[in-house]
Structure prediction request, 448 residues.
Amino acid sequence: MNWNLIITLGRDTLIVIGGITVIFGFIKGLSDIIPHIGRFKSWFWLQTAERLKNGTLIKNAIASDIETHVNEVVADLQKELPVGWIRKASIEWITESKKDDLEEGEIILRVKPFENQDQNFLAGIYAFFSKALFPHTKEIIPANIRKAAVLRISYRTISNKKPYLQESFENSFLETAIREDSTIATYLGRYENLDKKGFFTGSFLREIHEIATKTRFNDLRNRMNQEVDEILTHIEGFISQLGTSPPRVIPPGEWYRVGPATSYAFMLVARPEHGGVGPYVNRARERQGQNIERLYVMGAKQEEPFARYVISEIAKLPNYKLVEVFELNKDYRGNTGGIGALLVICKEEAPEESPEVLTSN
Amino acid sequence: MKLIIFRIKSFFKKLPELFKSTKVKMVYDSDLDHLIESLGIKTKVADGVFSCRFCNAQINHENLGAIQKDGGDLKFICMKLECLSKL
Prediction:
């Protein structure tokens, strides 16, 4: 027996297996960070599954296809929503389970073969957003408000990524939800209105989450519906005055809202030629004296670098803390893109009494 | 400069999030038998004991769309998108 040949063959085989593992590991790792690369993974599984007609490969192909489409959307939404709100989706195939293994409320969704992939996708994306949106505050936010938000995000996703499924989604998910609870139709319309100017994910969802977090253990929790309605009405009133012809001056009192749980103000940034960054910083200073806790800076897509500059200058103010900078689906003019930032205004602390004052008394 | 530092910090804060995921549990068509057997409900499904929690349609092997644990019990939802959308 030629041991040298066997050893060489064995070594070469291991090198090939090792090489393939490294390449696929690299692609997998890369697709975790850049979801669009997942399309390659998805394509690979599809091709292999079609050729080999193997059950496991078909399952992988279906899972990979759903994951890729959902995660492409997730990657976009992650830039719009606060850190940790939306994580990428991963499908866990269940082949056996005991009743006690399932957590309360947990769902196992049945997936049909590829011929039903559209239905698989619709059900998958909705199940994902129902689970992912409003982490930790699901139980506090009223069901109709939350459900309408999940439907709005899912609907936007499907319209952008799979437009041919839009009608199917409307006829099944939207229609059923509205039939069950007519208030959902009202919320959907209002959310869409906000979404057209970037205020749905930009400020509204963040405010709901903040209220839900703050009112968890107090009486205001029972009045969440009313509070959310008032915020919606305020933002609707505010955006209705944007982009009018002739341009309308928004009254000073409509730029902010001081509510029982949260208080916020808006700042729209677009025109560097109107005195540069100074007027914006001065306006931010004025907000400190108005009992406002949160400032949303919304920058127009066309003036994004200037908006970033304004945000960084406001963040330098002593009582301002930059919480997050986020991307917008639409800017306040209705153009695709734009940048937003949330800054928290810390209350000015009363100066400590100096020893001289104490001694003089 | 402050914004650049903030963005670098945000990037490192977001980095672990890139590797975390929200798990969605699914059962593939061909594994359904095995799953309902392991849950001890195979004969009940075959006998049509369960009904859809939303439309009350009798649940069988063909139209079972989802299983949900609710109030400690297993609930069943049929394949209709209208019912799946109520989850």
